[in-house]
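worker-3 :: picked Delta(9)-fatty-acid desaturase fat-7 like protein
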Amino acid sequence: MSISSVSESDDILDYNITESLANTPEYTNNPADENTSSKKSGVTYLQSSKFKLGTNISSKGKKLLPDMLNAFVLWRITVSVGLLAVHRFWSHRAFKAKLPLQIFMCIISFALGQGSIFTWARDHRVHHKYVDTTADPYNINRGFFFAHIGWLMCRKHPDVIESGKKLPTDDLKADPIVRFNRKYYFPMWALFCFILPTIIPIYFWEEKWVDAFFVAGVLKYFLQLHSTFCINSVAHKFGYRPFDKKIEAKESFFTEAVQPGEGSHNYHHVFPRDYRTKEHAFTFNSSRVFIEFMAAIGQAYDLKWTSDELIKARKLKAANDNKMKEDEAFLCKEWSQ
Ligand SMILES: [Zn+2]
Ligand SMILES: [Zn+2]
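worker-3 :: tokens ->
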């Protein structure tokens, strides 16, 4: 056994004894012993460090829950209201809105952080008009990754740019709120997407700014981007097509789960001006609830939707088209044998 190892063991033993003695009144009240006093201060230091460490761990644990709840609530509000603003209101004009509601939707669209209203709405109109072609900005035929996020990492296809110029955007250019949004997009995006969400945890539960920024800013932004991107990727790749089998847009349960109200994408491509964006009323659609609440208090009006008869007729037509295709395929197979 080496000397140093004996010494270490003794120190540990000594520390344990000292620590237990430190809690007894006799030991604490013996200032005469210099050696004891220095050990006592060492113990006090260790105990206070241990206490501080424990406090930090427990306070972090206590703050993690409100941090995550804050990020979750901001994520859901931002995508529900922000998307209905840029998508259902400015892209498709599925309803009309009074000025206070338009201003509110414009603010939330800054927090959404997916480009200016003008750019979002123009690209989305191009997507609907030229879906699944080279002019589609998020063309799923260029692969899942491209449709999800890859389209933001490369130059636009010339057909996308050409088609964007051809499509009517006069209503957007004439809209003063859209013009304001386009002009001040970047400073407002920084303010509403990152700065204000970071201030909430710092102000209300004294969170450290780094933790507040990464949870309420970065994590929340990550969630709101990818849940939206799933509409262009997942909802164009996986699912079923009860309304139009010729397009890649599908009814996607996964997209519906991460982006309530936007998973019924086959329906939406067939009836793009329906403010509900889906057929069924019984599944959760936070954007629809918001629009109907705004209509109830007089802020939204002239809501557009598709009648049940038309929905049924379209479903029947799609089923018949598919049946005809199956029959044709069967006859061709028979003939070739
Ligand atoms: Zn689509
Ligand atoms: Zn749309």
